[in-house]
Amino acid sequence: MTETIRTGGSDGNWWSFSISDEKRRLKIQTDVSRNTLEVNPNGQMDYTSYIGLDELLACQVPSSQIPDERVFIIVHQLFELIFKLMIFDLAVIARTFEQLLQVQDDSKFFRMCMEEETFWRPALTASGRIELNSKTLLGNVLKNLNNDATFSSKEFYFFRPYLPPASGFQTAQYRLIQRAFGKSNLLTIRLFPSDMFREKYEGKTDAAPPIQVVDQLILREGGEIATPAESRDFAIVARLDALSHQVLSRLPDPTESGYQITTLKKIRPHDVDDAVEQLESNLANHRKKQGSKKPPNAAEVDAAALKQFREDIEDSKNRENERRELLTAARAGAVYLRNFAPWSHLSEVLKRLVTADKALHGKDESFLKHHFDLAVRQEARIERHAVDRGEAEQPTGTGGGGTRYLLLARQLIDLFPALVAFRELGDVHERLSFVD
Question: How far is Cα 354 from Cα 418, in angstroms, rounded to an integer?
């Protein structure tokens, strides 16, 4: 396996990186086969050309003359730039773990996990950025849209009709980040309405059951990013959670000395029942809002959607629980790491990843929580503005389904935490218990 990540497309230089202490110091050279280009070969580089400033500043194309639309565009572009950096940083960490797992000698493997600061430096700075961006930067960028002092909901009301069915819901990069954080089994659940996307993109007006958030109908060309083929080098990002647990499973097992390790929590049947009940309520509210405009086959479609959803979430629950049953060795390694080497570079990287997952997906004070709260407020304000103006209500977001589907998605996300074998120990402060 080559140690340098490469990819096709225009990002050849971006993905040509190394974690090797010697190789990562080398300058990238022009190589057509790798789609790389030497930067500043003549020593005449300037700031504008280095950061691609002309192209960067020319890619904002508003649909209206409303000034506030400009910040709306730039905020979402900033999100995607941050997501791009996060994906890269997740790849750095994943490649570090992959390199560790290639070390056959157990004593050398252990020594590299505990020491070797030079080896860990790229992963340490990458995990530090992921934590910072998740906890601080994304939330601060979102604040630009969070109140009428910086972004007027009344102004939004006027340019919003020019945008459907485009939605931040269609971010493919964020779905890849969710895979990195152990949520692949969540992304297979068919939960989100497809009616608006089918009508706008395919010209179909009949009712249809919900689809996956990573369905190509929603993500369009972005589906190749959210669900990368194994031939794509950034596919390693989707394997980060699995690689993390593989590294943990090779650490010393404290049970061999008589210590007892508790089993991992599993997704329970009532979690499935609660989710199905919430979707049933969502569908009923959606049809109520449609009124006389709802499709004639709505009842039949909704019944099929509920059946499909229960089957999907049962399947996801079973696959996730089966996965956790196979993490016994990783759980033991996590207990060892938490108790005997909490100061290690490996432990620091894993703790930062857990913190980032909570900052992105947690119930309280997370990026998704703040984003959901904003969506709820904006939806209410848009409805109020329509009433005040005596105009027809605008289509709701999330593919026409509204914020109720985002709420259900957030409820399900809690069932699929990142680094589950390592994370729970920090959440409940579990420590070793000796068995006589």
Answer: 7
C-alpha gyration radius of the chain:
24
The model's pTM is 0.92
Q: What are phi and psi of 367, to 5 degrees?
A: -60, -45
Whether the bond into 41 is cis, omega within 30 of 0: no
Backbone angles phi, psi at 256, to 5 degrees: -65, -20
Q: What's the burial of 430, exposed, middle or buried (CB within 10 Å: 0-12/13-18/19+)?
A: middle
Q: Which two tokens stand for residue 403?
A: 């914020």
Q: What is the pLDDT of residues 310-363, one digit of tens each?
A: 999 999 999 999 999 999 999 999 999 998 999 999 999 999 999 999 999 998
SS (H, E, C) 302-347: HHHHHHHHHHHHHHHHHHHHHHHHCCHHHHHHHHHHHHHCCCCHHH
Token pair in block for residue 178: 């969710």
DSSP-H helix ranges across 102-234: 106-114, 117-132, 138-142, 153-159, 172-180, 184-187, 195-202, 216-219, 223-226
Amino acid at 318: N
